[in-house]
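explain this:
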Amino acid sequence: MDPHQHQPIGQADETSPPPSNTAATSCRCCGGPTTCPPPPAWSDISPPPSYRPIRAPAINLPPSNSQQAIILAPVPQAQKTPVVSPPYLFQIPVKRIQTPDDIRHFHDSDSGKNFLGFVVSLSESIRSHKISDPCHQSPILNSILSILQSLIDWVDEIPPVQQSSRYGNLSFRVWQSRLFDNSEQLMLQFLPDDLRSATVELVPYFADSFGNSSRIDYGTGHETNFAAWLYCLARLGLLKEEDYQALVSRVFVKYLELMRKLQFVYCLEPAGSHGVWGLDDYHFLPFIFGSSQLIDHKYMKPKSIHNQDILDNFSKEYMYISCIAFVKQVKKGLFAEHSPLLDDISGVPNWNKVNSGMLKMYKAEVLEKVPIMQHFLFGWLIKWD
């Protein structure tokens, strides 16, 4: 393994005084040895003064044994999405996950393996490609882009209301109400006649992809629902493998544009955010796809995120760079203080290691967390076996 500088998650900066008792631990992303103490739990340390979390994290930073489990876990592998065939047995999807045993059941099932494999396939499809690179765009994919653009336009038509609360603008509920009222018609814009009944399953995933109207928040669970909606379309055979690159570089980029706008205009709170110790207050998947884009790049390395010229000139072409630029835009102060995990990852020697580490983290930190997955839905396209 190439040597690189490691810092434990939560270490403030190079000027921090050295700890009195050091212990050998591992870099969370690549597993390299360090001589730094393990990261403190949330209750053991105050957030940096330059950052005020919107709410306390729903899920604290995992203990060191969980970090080690992530490092030692196998890297998730791509899987071919199985396409369903008649007779179609579409049903209203419902929640099934309540306990850690349910989580294990899901990941041991074909549904769990296929869904994660779909995410890995999307990641591989964008490997070493810029966002602007030419790619296949099917008519259905163009219809999805048109739908997302309509949702963006709705934000302009539903301005935020004046209110005393800084976060959670009530106009988001008006936007969500329009979404719920029109979701089925939006699906019917591209569904062929023999699959029109699939709206009973597609609409719940789609409608829950953009945040919660009651709490006026958004998080990785909603982002996972959007990935599940795309997975269901792939299960129906409407999206094929040749569409995957465009799903990331066109559809997911447009989805990210929409979510950034919703977060800004309606001041959405992070849903169950890890707070200052997390990867990002809202998103995870763009870091997976973005790190895949940069694999084997001749010039940009993980440490390049600290170069402002890189952020200014390449954020429109690389999702990872765009995410770092966005974080620096919305959070003030030292990067190592408000985003210690991202700062940690910048010391990993290459993007391949970052990408494989991100995939393992996504499985462990999102798809294996009951507080997130308890809201995940199961129907006929994503079965609870």
